[in-house]
Structures are given as C-alpha cells and as structure tokens.
Design brief:
The protein is α/β, with parallel strands linked by helices. It contains ten helices and six strands. The chain is globular and about 50 Å long.
C-alpha cells in the first residue's frame, strides 16, 4: 500500500491512474470529538476558580460523559440520520476510552431509532484514536502546572504544543504519528465507503493537520475542537478534501 502522504495527498509515485488511487480512500470521512465529559466540566470549574486540583480519581480512559454530553451524543445521532444515504456512515472507528465509546453507542442508538443505520452496527475500537497522554501533567489544571511543575510550564511555552512532550506523555507530533497510522488502515479497509471516527480534541486536530497539510502556525491558530462537533472530508481527485470543520450547528445550544 502507498504511504499515507502519497495516497491521501494525491501524489502517487507508481503508474496507477488517478481513478485507481481515488478508490483507496473513504468516500466521506467524518470525525467527531466525544460529547462533554465529567472531566470537561470539572476542568472548566477549576480553571475559572484557579484551583490546583480536580475531584477526579479514575484513569483518564475511564472518564464518562456528563448528562449534557449524553444529550450531545443524541444530537449527533440525529445529525447522522439526517445525512444523505450515500454520506451516512455504516462503519465506525472509535477510541476505546469510556467517553468516546458512550458517544458512539448513544449516537448509533439514536440513528438506528430513526431507521438510518442497523441497530447492530458494529464499532471498531482502536487505541491509536485515544486522547493525548499527558504523563506527569495528567489531571492538573493550568494553575497546578505552573505551581507544581514551573520548569515544565516554561518548557511547554518555549517548545510549543506541537513538539512539547511532558515527562511520560506525548507531544501533538506523537499523536500525529499514530493518527497517520490509523488513517492508512481506514483508507485500506473503508475504500469507497463513508466512515465515522469518534475520538478526542487532539486526535481530531491531528487528523486535520495530516489531511490538510497544515503548518505549525496554522495548526496552533485553530480553535479547540468542540464536543460532538462534526468535521467532514470528501474524496476528490485522489485526495480527502475538507468540506466543513468543527461544526456544531446540529447541537441545540451550538455546543
């Protein structure tokens, strides 16, 4: 199989025709971030208060959706059901974390209830779609990082998010490597079909970074990926081209 950069970006060094290359892409690639999690709520409160901790004792992987996040996942399912038939994913790739798995399950149930997808639609869980690992900084609000790890806070500012790797954690560039890897498999296994990826803010950012060939400056200028937003790329001329990004118009409150 061709390297990701050549297949997705439309530059194939072999003698394959453009049409043959194009068939190695999903017809539509849709990416969404999980619905609001209980940790999202706690971190918002902590940041507003300047708190040095959040009341979370479980692993990052085990954090569930908030009630609002569950409502967002239902709205995602309704949006899914409203898509034209040819654009409606019958294949779902999902981070194995609890909040993403819950988002996928609720959205599928909602779409199935509206007759848009099979009730038994299978979800493929792939650890390469997991959230960025933050190592020693995990579960620490900004104020706590500055207070407890001032040298890391300074190094983070100097290096920038793309290349800063906290001890025991990952940089954005590290996440980009595994995102490129999973995209190769998606292209190979979902060729010609619409597919939905259910992931996390950093993972979806790195999807855009890889697919749209962003520079570091363009990447860091993007606003955060919103909960249950939809970002869509369509196969065109041998490349997945952006149709819309980080849209929340399907959510009742816009986010």
């Amino acid at each position: 199989m061709a390297e990701l950069g050549t297949t997705l970006n439309g530059h194939h060094p072999s003698t394959q025709t453009p049409d043959a290359t194009a068939t190695r892409l999903p017809s539509v690639l849709i990416a969404t971030r999980h619905g609001e999690s209980t940790a999202n709520v706690e971190f918002q409160l902590a940041e507003a208060a300047g708190a040095l901790s959040v009341p979370i004792s479980c692993r990052d992987a085990d954090i569930p959706l908030s009630l609002h996040g569950q409502q967002q996942a239902h709205a995602l399912g309704r949006w899914w059901a409203g898509l034209p038939g040819a654009d409606r994913p019958r294949s779902v790739w999902c981070s194995p974390y609890v909040r993403t798995a819950e988002t996928a399950r609720i959205a599928i149930a909602q779409a199935a209830g509206l007759g848009a997808v099979p009730v038994s639609l299978a979800v493929r869980y792939d650890e390469r779609l997991r959230d960025r690992e933050l190592g020693v900084l995990e579960m620490l609000p900004k104020a706590a990082i500055e207070a407890k790890h001032p040298e890391e806070a300074a190094r983070r500012r100097k290096m920038g998010e793309l290349y800063y790797r906290p001890p025991g954690g990952e940089s954005w560039a590290d996440v980009a490597l595994r995102v490129r890897s999973v995209l190769r498999d998606v292209c190979a296994e979902e060729a010609g079909r619409p597919v939905l990826l259910v992931a996390h803010d950093c993972t979806v950012l790195m999807l855009r970074y890889a697919l749209d060939r962003l520079t570091e400056a363009q990447l860091t200028a993007l606003e955060p990926v919103r909960n249950c937003s939809t970002s869509v790329w369509r196969a065109e001329d041998g490349r997945l081209r952006p149709a819309h990004w980080n849209d929340t118009g399907h959510l009742a409150d816009g986010g």
